[in-house]
Amino acid sequence: MSILINKNTKVIVQGFTGKEGTFHSKECIAYGTNIVAGVTPFKGGQTHLDRPVFNTVKEAVTHTGASVSLIFIPSMFAADGIMEAANAGIKLAVVITENIPINDMIKAKNYANKCGMKIIGPNCPGVISSNECKLGIMPASIFKKANINIGLISKSGTLTYEGANQIINEGYGVSTAIGIGGDNIIGMTYSDLLPMFEKDDDTKAIVMIGEIGGLLEIEACSVIKEQILKPIVAFIAGKSAPKGKKMGHAGAIISEENSSAVGKIKALKNVGVHVVESPAHIGKKLKEILK
């Protein structure tokens, strides 16, 4: 099993015919993702990668029955694309685009919430359910299933890949991996996704990768304490980062004690999470607690 997406998920790609959309759509299709159509304004009626292209999301949904959209729209138009998807009845939008203006993203997220559409991202590597469906830019070869599978949630793209590699190297598999993105305004968070993994019979443990800035990891602690029984291994990046300085992601800035790596590590340990000092220790810690 998996969460959010599976082999039967019907997907459209917004920004399908652009350079990034074309390259990554090819990779997703090669992995087995059921991409049924693309959307590029003024290119409706064409065929691209052997899939039909529509002018609007509404047309694509009407003709294909798709429920998920993978978004590669340039940042200045991305919020409009997200809202168009929500208005057309899409249930999940995976937004790869980075540098979306904060005010635009606030507006888009509020509209998506009203329409009942979930968002992963923006500024994220996407979502992958191993051996079933890939929506994003992650290197597919890393993600595999095994007899025992682990769920993975990460703010960082590259640490998503490192976490998955650690899991696979110890003989485990990845059920679903989700890069939630490192921007100030994102869609689904740890608090939204952890209960989904808890309910997934195929997920035996969870790896949670966080970083300095914001309070998402702190907010997840109450969810972990009240709802999560499966073991969690966590790594928090940025322990040596100076206070008040943005580090990498737009949201990675320490503004208060709880947004520091030390504050987050303390809070996670207090609710029983196994926090490791280095991402290189994720696999070993999993093996230790699952043996």
From TrEMBL:
Its EC number is 6.2.1.5. The active site is at H249. Substrate binds at Y161. CoA binds at T17, G18, K19, E20, K43, I96, T97, E98. One of its GO terms (cellular component) is succinate-CoA ligase complex (ADP-forming). It comes from the Bacteria. GO terms for molecular function: nucleotide binding; succinate-CoA ligase (ADP-forming) activity; succinate-CoA ligase (GDP-forming) activity. GO terms for biological process: tricarboxylic acid cycle. Pathway: Carbohydrate metabolism; tricarboxylic acid cycle; succinate from succinyl-CoA (ligase route): step 1/1. The keyword Transcription does not apply. Keywords: Ligase, Nucleotide-binding, Tricarboxylic acid cycle. Residues 4-100 form the CoA-binding domain. InterPro entries: Citrt_syn/SCS-alpha_CS, CoA-bd, CoA_lig_alpha, NAD(P)-bd_dom_sf, SUCC_ACL_C, Succinyl-CoA_synth-like. The keyword Transferase does not apply. Belongs to the succinate/malate CoA ligase alpha subunit family. Heterotetramer of two alpha and two beta subunits. Succinyl-CoA synthetase functions in the citric acid cycle (TCA), coupling the hydrolysis of succinyl-CoA to the synthesis of either ATP or GTP and thus represents the only step of substrate-level phosphorylation in the TCA. The alpha subunit of the enzyme binds the substrates coenzyme A and phosphate, while succinate binding and nucleotide specificity is provided by the beta subunit. This is Succinate--CoA ligase [ADP-forming] subunit alpha. It comes from Campylobacter blaseri. The gene is sucD.
